[in-house]
Amino acid sequence: MYKLIKRDGMAKRGEFHTVHGTIQTPVFMNVGTCAAIKGGVSTEDLQGLKTQVELSNTYHLHVRPGDKVIKQLGGLHKFMVWDKPILTDSGGFQVFSLSGLRKIKEEGVYFNSHIDGRKIFMGPEESMQIQSNLASTIAMAFDECPPHPATREYMQNSVDRTTRWLERCKKEMARLNSLEDTINKNQMLFGINQGGTFEDIRIEHAKRISELNLDGYALGGLAVGESHSEMYRIIEETVPYLPVEKPTYLMGVGTPANILEAVDRGVDFFDCVYPTRNGRHGHAYTNLGKLNLLNARFELDTRPIEEGCNCPACQKYSRAYIRHLLKAKEMLGLRLLVMHNLYFYNTMMEEIREAIEQGRYKEYKKAKLAGFEANGES
Asked: Which distant-in-sequence residues (6+ apart) come within 8 Å of 75 by Cβ?
């Protein structure tokens, strides 16, 4: 259940009550595709990094180790040793990202596994069954994430099919939640709005899926090649047609600047691989933009990644030492940067929540963006 606490313009401050605890929103969900955060970060680490929600990937866990294996082991929470909320995506994004390995039909999608080439079929019912086996807190509806750019005809047909799939997902989840051997009988379902950059298709789809009274709603198919200004326009046009009393989730987004802009347009759930992926490539997020610690100028720099940061990396280690670890290809360097970046994102979300509560979000956003732009990075 979602409780809206405060509005500041379009920005929402809320709480989302789940069987695995309450999520304070806006929230950034930390991405653990294969039931682990890349970069050697444990679930114990995540507790100290202010992580509220962990996100895992349905398709990847279905392929390895297998959702039935995870169910036998007591579900994803027990498997990962994580007691807070988990969101699982539906496998729909792999329809987009594995385009060379799949065939889309009305019943669902035929894949070849990216690991061993074996044939896999996933439709709405299969996606719900896999996510039920994983026993996540929130399951995402199975959809197609259409390519960008796509023709209006392709987009409309795709969105219509996604709506039909969503109705099948809702029906199947109700059935699964009623079964005796289901681990999480309170699993929630979020529907996904699609339509690319065609705002009329987006708005019509938002209206249609809102009628299904789901637990939450996501904007999918953004950050797939369109410009930031196009993405912001679509968010701005679409969000007013999604229920304000339910969470709104912008999938796969994004940079700190993207998050600040989307919060201002009414979004309150986010996920992105940027903090972990960029950390593994030597990049650190700070309030003065992104730093590339592989740069020679950090060789003798004894300062922490960011002055005043309370993350485990900044509490003990210098930029010079972390740079040395990266150059020496020591795993510790990647781990420290990933931990710093997750802490940075989660701390920014805390600041966002506080700013909305105090009715000063626009002022906060402006100051934060000015800091990022000081180094030409956001």
From this structure: 133, 134, 135, 183, 184
340 is in an annotated binding site: yes
Domain count, the chain: 2
Q: Cβ distance 46 to 37 under 8 Å?
A: yes
378 pLDDT band, cuts 50/70/90, is: very low
143 annotated among ligand-binding-site residues: yes
Q: Has 45 been annotated as catalytic?
A: no
- Is there a binding annotation on residue 77? no
Distance CA 179, CA 185 (A): 8
Catalytic, out of 67, 215, 268, 271: 271
Whether 271 is catalytic: yes
pLDDT of 100 above 80 = no
121 is in an annotated binding site: no
Indicate which CATH number applies to the domain containing 191.
3.20.20.105
Residue 311 annotated as lining a ligand binding site = yes
My answer on whether 363 and 220 are in the same domain is: no
- Where does the chain show beta strands of DSSP type E? 2-8, 11-18, 21-25, 27-31, 54-57, 86-89, 102-105, 108-112, 119-122, 138-140, 188-193, 216-219, 248-250, 269-271, 283-286, 289-292
Does 378 map to a domain?
no
What's the mean per-residue pLDDT of the chain?
95
Q: For the full predicted model, state whether its pTM sits above 0.85.
A: yes
86 burial via Cβ count (<10 Å: 0-12, 13-18, 19+): buried
Closest to 173 in 3D by CA, of 208, 138, 219: 138
Q: What is the C-alpha separation between 259 and 222, in angstroms, rounded? A: 13
> Could you say which of 89, 215, 264, 268 is catalytic?
89
33, amino acid identity:
T
What 3 state SS string does 113-137 have?
CCCCCCEEEECHHHHHHHHHHHCCC
